[in-house]
Each structure stands twice: as structure tokens, then as C-alpha cells.
Design goal:
elongated, mainly alpha
Length: 172
């Protein structure tokens, strides 16, 4: 599939505080997921933290390095800005295919805590765990995607070329 024209730069520049505020739900999801896993097993929680770091590094290296936003504050999620400190810029032509190919590297960050939380409720019901799990689900499966779609993606000049937004436009 041929890539559409990608604007070299976008006029909207986000402040560091806007980027940090936008990432509070994602960071909260990571913390809550780690807490749920730690309730199950502290060693597995430590391994999960390592996976969070590795998966985000891979996301930056394998996807964000190809993004035309690379190294700028034109992306509200801030990954483009962080990527320049982690990896070198790659050709933007590879963005769409790399996005599709490597997006799955971060899926365990959502699903592993969910599975562990459900398992904890199953083996020994506990209201605190249930509340943590519900809050995790709301943040991870409603809050984070909503913010991405409604805040980051709708203002992004690349949205018509992005596999993530193409998924949403096909549902309409």
C-alpha cells in the first residue's frame, strides 16, 4: 500500500507539561498493573517492570524512530520527543509498516495485569483487588484509548496515514 503524503512538520507544538499531563493515565495504568501483579507475586511484578521498560524502549526504537514527528513536540503523547534520546531517526516511509508489525510489543502491558487481576479475584475474592482491577480496566481500556483517539490522534496531521486511526475510521 502506498503511503500518503506526510507533512514534514506540524504547526502545533505541545509544552512539556501538556505532554506529561497527557501521559498520567498511561503511567497510572502501569502503576496499577504492577500493583495487581505484585499482589500475586513480587518477583513477577519486578519482571513486569522490566518488561514495561523493554517494551517501551522497543516501541520507541521500532515505531517512533520512523515517525515523522520524531524529535519534536508535535505529538501530544511525547514519544517522538523521547525517541530522539533513545534511538536515531529512521526513514518515515517505514512508519506505517513498522507500526503494524511491532505494535503488539506493548499489548502485554494491558493484558497481563488484566489476566492476573481476574485470576486473583477468581482464586480469592477481595474487594480491594476488585476495585484495583476495575480502576485498571477503566484507565487501560477506556481512558488511555479515549485520550489517544480524541486528544492525540484527532489533532495529529498524520492521522490519515496512521494504522491506529485507520482502524477507527474503518469502524465508522
Amino acid at each position: 500500500m502506498q503511503q500518503k503524503n506526510i507533512p514534514k512538520s506540524c504547526p502545533r507544538q505541545y509544552t512539556l507539561s501538556q505532554i506529561l499531563i497527557h501521559n498520567i493515565p498511561l503511567f497510572s495504568m502501569y502503576v496499577l498493573g504492577t500493583v495487581l501483579i505484585a499482589i500475586f507475586n513480587i518477583l513477577i511484578a519486578v519482571i513486569f517492570i522490566i518488561y514495561l521498560i523493554v517494551s517501551n524502549y522497543l516501541f520507541l526504537s521500532l515505531i517512533c524512530a520512523y515517525c515523522p514527528h520524531y524529535g519534536t513536540r508535535t505529538s501530544l503523547c511525547g514519544y517522538a520527543l523521547v525517541a530522539k534520546h533513545v534511538t536515531t531517526r529512521k526513514s518515515a516511509r517505514g512508519f506505517k509498516s513498522n507500526f503494524r508489525k511491532y505494535i503488539g510489543v506493548i499489548f502485554p502491558n494491558w493484558f497481563f495485569p488484566l489476566i492476573i487481576g481476574i485470576f486473583l479475584i477468581y482464586i480469592s475474592f477481595n474487594w480491594i483487588i476488585l476495585i484495583l482491577l476495575i480502576v485498571f480496566i477503566i484507565i487501560a481500556f477506556i481512558g488511555v484509548p479515549y485520550l489517544s483517539k480524541s486528544k492525540s490522534c484527532t489533532t495529529c496531521k498524520l492521522r490519515n496515514n496512521c494504522p491506529w486511526m485507520c482502524l477507527y475510521s474503518k469502524k465508522k
